[in-house]
Amino acid sequence: MIGSVQRAMRLLEAAATHADGAPAKQLARETGIALPTAYHLLRTLTHEGYLRREKGVFVLGEAAERLSSSGAQQNRRGMIGDALAHCRDVIGMPVYFAVYREGEIEVVAVSDTPGNPAVEEWADFRETGHAHAIGQCLLSQLDDEARQDHLDRYPVQSITRYSVRDDRTFLRRLDAMGRMRPVVERQEYALGTVCAAIPILAGDTAATLAISVPAGQADRLLPAAERLQREIGMLLRTLAFSISI
Prior knowledge:
- The protein is α+β, with helices and mostly antiparallel strands.
- The protein has eight helices and seven strands, in the order αααββαββαααβββα.
- The strands form two sheets. It has a five-stranded antiparallel beta sheet with strand order 4-3-7-6-5.
- A hairpin with a 2-residue loop joins strand 6 and strand 7 (205-214).
- Helix 2 (24-31) packs across helix 3 (35-47) and helix 4 (62-91) runs antiparallel to helix 8 (221-242).
- The longest helix has 30 residues, at 62-91.
- The chain is elongated.
- The two termini are 35 Å apart.
């Protein structure tokens, strides 16, 4: 073990317990590190941005905060991954979690298995929201202005022979769906695949959970979507917490 690294980490941990900072002598005393050594390590940590010295006390610096933020993000990703894996195992289909963030469709996480693989993203999900259930469900939750803005940037285009053909027809379909209704899409994005997406209320953010199944097993889709909708109630806190990923 490298002793200097261990001592530096102990100093960082001690500094993190003091929201208003602590002087070198106090940090040395709390960690049991000799004061001259503590001064040397604190200067190094400050130089590297892990600590910041203000009015004679040491507080966490930007580098340490980035580490903390990264760890929190990984924790949130782990939570959403576990939640999707639970749904996948219960339903027996690939499960997708997506949000509409800053004008873009973002697939946050997917959980599948070799026996039940997810749909291959052969055409950019962001640009083809009119064709897949995830995009249709997210766009159905937006107001008219936001929908039009999205279509101005990503006009409707024919993806398969089952896809909607133009913006006007697509907007009429969204109006008919309603903002918080499940969406079913049959081979509009990928031939041989049918999908369903369930809208999620998560503050001001449009979100969705979706599933897919081979077209030959289409009779499984609606019962599975109903079961997914029941599961959402138990997972909503985790999903809403993960919106900030």
